[in-house]
């Protein structure tokens, strides 16, 4: 079945982009990476999403996350559309965006990566791309996958929040609870015994009493 599952290695595809031909693993290097797909160039929701992604590019860069978009049109179309995206942001209508856009005009990558939306068809009845978000770690393995239909735009602030959680939980034995924001307390992961947790989290562990008597809601201040 096409598509990518958590833990799968990113395919090392070659593709034409608005910043030249790339090999995906070389593009990622040792960084984290985010690949986000779009149904089509010159469409309204996509334009707002790419505008927001461009505004947030410095935040992704601060987190060592390389960004790359994908849409099923040509490089030429992508470059022309980029002018609209910059103008939508109130910037000069130039072709340059702070990340490349993959030209997947034959939808080969979209099929390989399981990105098609069967409910949104082009004029020839062929499915458009859905709004996929793939986040890859520095080991090139898939850490997060979100799939939105073409008709629902994503929240890029939420994607940044998720990246913060992925990066924190990749390196510390914690998990982030509902609606967590950077700086909030985090949860000690269930597999970590209490005695080890006490040593690992010197700022303290706060347990909430529950009717079951089980002490599994273990909070600790976000570790550095
Ligand atoms: C859009 O980007 O606006 C869009 C694209 C395909 C289907 C619906 C909306």
TrEMBL record:
GO terms for molecular function: 1-acylglycerophosphocholine O-acyltransferase activity; peroxiredoxin activity; phospholipase A2 activity. PROSITE patterns: THIOREDOXIN_2. Gene3D superfamilies: Antioxidant, Horf6, Chain A, domain2, Glutaredoxin. Transmembrane segments: none annotated. Keywords: Antioxidant, Multifunctional enzyme, Oxidoreductase, Peroxidase, Redox-active center. It comes from the Eukaryota. GO terms for biological process: cell redox homeostasis. Its EC number is 1.11.1.27, 2.3.1.23, 3.1.1.4. The keyword Phosphoprotein does not apply. Residues 4-168 form the Thioredoxin domain. It catalyses: 1-hexadecanoyl-sn-glycero-3-phosphocholine + hexadecanoyl-CoA = 1,2-dihexadecanoyl-sn-glycero-3-phosphocholine + CoA; a 1-acyl-sn-glycero-3-phosphocholine + an acyl-CoA = a 1,2-diacyl-sn-glycero-3-phosphocholine + CoA; 1,2-dihexadecanoyl-sn-glycero-3-phosphocholine + H2O = 1-hexadecanoyl-sn-glycero-3-phosphocholine + hexadecanoate + H(+); a hydroperoxide + 2 glutathione = an alcohol + glutathione disulfide + H2O. One of its GO terms (cellular component) is mitochondrion. The keyword Cell membrane does not apply. CDD domains: PRX_1cys (cd03016). The active site is at residue 46. Belongs to the peroxiredoxin family. Prx6 subfamily. Thiol-specific peroxidase that catalyzes the reduction of hydrogen peroxide and organic hydroperoxides to water and alcohols, respectively. This is Peroxiredoxin-6. The gene is PRDX6.
